[in-house]
Structures are given as C-alpha cells and as structure tokens.
C-alpha cells in the first residue's frame, strides 16, 4: 500500500543553460508522475503481487491517471478533489552528461489528502505501508500521515518513507520532520536529504546518524549507489549499475519501488538495495518517472 502524490509531469528536456528572456529549444512531453504513484508503479513492475495507491487528484485528470495506474498493475484508490486541480510538476531536464533536473511544483490536490480520506480498512491484507514524504508538506496530509502511521503500528504493518524533497524539508524543519516520522521502520533519503536531516556533510556519517532514529536507513547516492545503515552503523555500500542517463526524474522512486517489492519477498536489505539500483539505472535511461509498460 502506497499513500502519496499523483501528479502530471510536464518534462522539458533542453541542452545547456536556459536562455533568460527568450526561447530555449526543448523536447516537451506530458506524462503521469508523482513520487508516490511512481513508487507504486515500480513496485508492481518489480513483481509485487498486489499494489494499491491512495492519492488525491482533481477532476481534470482523474480518469487519465486511473487508466495509467491500472495499466502499470496498480490498483488506484483516488480521491477526486472537488476544488483543486491535479498537481502539476514542470521538470526541466538538462540533457548534458548528468541529465540533472529542476522541478517547478504546483501540488494542487496532491497534498490535500486528509484524515477523512483514510480508513483502517485500507490496511486489510496489507504487508507493507509506504508513505511519500510530500505528504508532510501540508497540514491536512500531515494529519493523514499521523493517522496512517497509528493504524499501521496497531496492526504491526511495517512503514517506510522517502523524504521526497530537500527544498521542502528546509521549509518544514529538520526537527519537525524527525518528530513526524517517529515510528518508521525504513527511511529512504537521498544523499542531500540525509545530509540535511543530520547537518553532516559526509553521506556515510549522515546515514549512520539517521539510523539511530529509524531502524533501517537506505541512503540513495545516485551514481554512487546506496548505503545500508542500521543501529548507528553503515553496514554496506552497494554500487550503482552503470548506465547512460537521459532523465533522472523518478530515479529515486524507481529505486524505492524495486527495493520494497524485493524486501517483501523476504530478501536481505542489501539484496533488495541491489534491485533498487537496477531499477534506478533503468529509470534514468528513460524519459519520465514511470517504468516501461508491461510486456
């Protein structure tokens, strides 16, 4: 079960600096996205037998997102917001060697999930709950996170979260974030997020420190793979799978989805991280944050 954001991605791939005040040539595509939705789709792509997604969208694109999620093997549980449109993210992707991206985000309905959208029955038959960190960036969805966490703890369902955005974490505040995620079983931060949450410049030190707050920390390092930390110690560094990046949008989501799907099979965290790295390599070789369509 994934609870998180469902958004429409407008991906503009350009080369070199943006030309301020005039035109910059770009290849532009509109695609389904959202960190929570992407994780769900990659988990299904990586063999999770049943994946559900709770999210909130506007009436403008609800049917399209339902079709796209279903086609990816995800059961969509989408709440249609009566007022706000579907969230939209403009992804500016520099097509240079690193394929780095910059996001312009209008969360729209995505962070308007609230406790009224939650029911304990949503966890019936669920073996794992994953929460998108974007839910912590509005008051309504923070309240939903608290309710979902309490429900999962009461049922003994393990819970993971991806912090989602270093920029939004700065606004939320580190201490507040750590208090809100009390009781998590797994945290999946990026290098920047791990360093921000600990105030430490070294990713290894940051992952180790975070694992004193959360039992298992998987710190994603992009082209440098990922770190596995438990009980204040980094236990493994798993290398990335070499690839030629086209678009890094959704690479961390792909990692998380494949990692969780593999972990649910009973695999060791280190082996699940290797699958996460494989998925991340596949994701960056594609445009957009979703996996290729099932064959």
UniProtKB/TrEMBL annotation:
GO biological process: phosphate-containing compound metabolic process
Ranges for domain Carbohydrate kinase PfkB: 1-294
InterPro entries: Carboh/pur_kinase_PfkB_CS, PfkB_dom, Ribo/fructo_kinase, Ribokinase-like
Key words of the record: Kinase, Transferase
Keyword Ubl conjugation on entry: no
Gene3D superfamilies xrefs: 3.40.1190.20
GO molecular function terms noted in the UniProt entry: kinase activity
Cross-referenced Pfam families: PfkB (PF00294)
Family: Belongs to the carbohydrate kinase PfkB family.
Protein's name in the database: Sugar kinase
Species: Streptomyces caeruleatus
